[in-house]
Structure formats: structure tokens, C-alpha cells
Amino acid sequence: MSSTISVLSSTRESRPVDWGRFALVGLGTVIAAVLANVLVYFIGGAVVGYDPEFVVLRNVSAVILFTVVPAIAAVLLYAVLLRFTANPARTFTIIAAVVLVVSLIPDVTYIPSVPGATGGQTAILSVMHVVAAIVIVWMLTTVTQPQTRTRG
Fold first, then answer.
1. Which of 92, 121, 122 is nearest to 105 (CA)?
2. Is 8 a domain residue?
3. Is 72 helix (H, G, I), strand (E, B) or coil?
4. H/E element holding 47?
5. Of 17, 20, 30, 151, which residue is most buried, by most CB within 10 angstroms?
């Protein structure tokens, strides 16, 4: 029984997490996702032009809010996965892919019926979902990996 406990504890301890670094990466992830979507918002506005009646993209504040909240949730989820799963990056990537697909459903089903919506605006909204997902998944699963130190 003692050997079982030591095996379990050694597997759990084999992946130490620097929570201070993770907090910085998490904050950077939220900021990067917001900045990426703000950039998409302004480029989309220049290319497509937003109908002022389309409340979803009427101004950039909605884009910021609807990127900050899911990005924070993603960072918190990844922290839980780091603590309790053997392969947090893989698990998070799968969850993120499912959440991305689910988040696109209203863009296809509901958003086209919103006053002022056009196909171009709906496409920009969908692109924002994909951009945020790419930034969040990449930063959390890549940048949070422990840095290996080489002796030299």
C-alpha cells in the first residue's frame, strides 16, 4: 500500500506548476484574446461595415466584454485541469474545440435574425470566436509549459 501511495504522489508531483507564472500567463491570455478580437472588430468594420442597428457589433465594448468573460473562464478551467488531470493540454484542447463549435451555433441559427444583421457581420462574429479560441488555447497550452533549465 505504501508503494501505491508513493507512485500516486510521484505522478502528481512530476508536473509542478508555478502558479505565479501561470497567473501572469493567464492575465496575458485574457489580454491577448481581447486585443486580437478588437483588431478583428476594427478590420471587420473597415471591410464589411457594421450596421448600427446590429446591436451585437454596434461598438467595441461588447466585443471586449464577450471576450473577457470566456477567456477568464478558460484560464480558470485550465488551472483546474493543471491541478487534477494527467494531460491538461490535451483535455483543454478537446473541451475548447467543443465549446467553440457550440459557441458558433447561435451565430448560424439566431444572429441572422437579429435586426441589422448581414452575412458579413455574422462572418466577422464567427471569426472572432475562432480567433479567441486559437489565442486562448495556444497561450494556455504552450506558454504555460514548464521551462526546462539547461546547465551550462
1. 122
2. no
3. helix
4. helix 19-47
5. 30
* Residue numbers of the domain that contains 40: 17-143
- Interhelix angle 88-109/119-138, rounded to 10 degrees, is 170
Side chain identity at residue 102, one-letter code: V
Q: What is the pLDDT of residues 136-150, one digit of tens each?
A: 999 999 987 765 444
3-state secondary structure the chain: CHHHHHHHHHHHHCCCCCHHHHHHHHHHHHHHHHHHHHHHHHHHHHHCCCCCCCHHHCCHHHHHHHHHHHHHHHHHHHHHHHHHCCCHHHHHHHHHHHHHHHHHHHHHHCHHHCCCCCHHHHHHHHHHHHHHHHHHHHHHHHHCCCCCCCCC
Q: Which three cell numbers stand for residue 13?
A: 508531483
How many domains does the chain fold into?
1
- Examine residue 86 and state whether it is found in any structural domain, yes or no: yes
In a domain, 152, yes or no: no
- Is residue 3 in some structural domain? no
pTM of the model: 0.84
pLDDT (tens digit per residue) in 1-49: 544 444 444 344 446 889 999 999 999 999 999 999 999 999 999 999 9
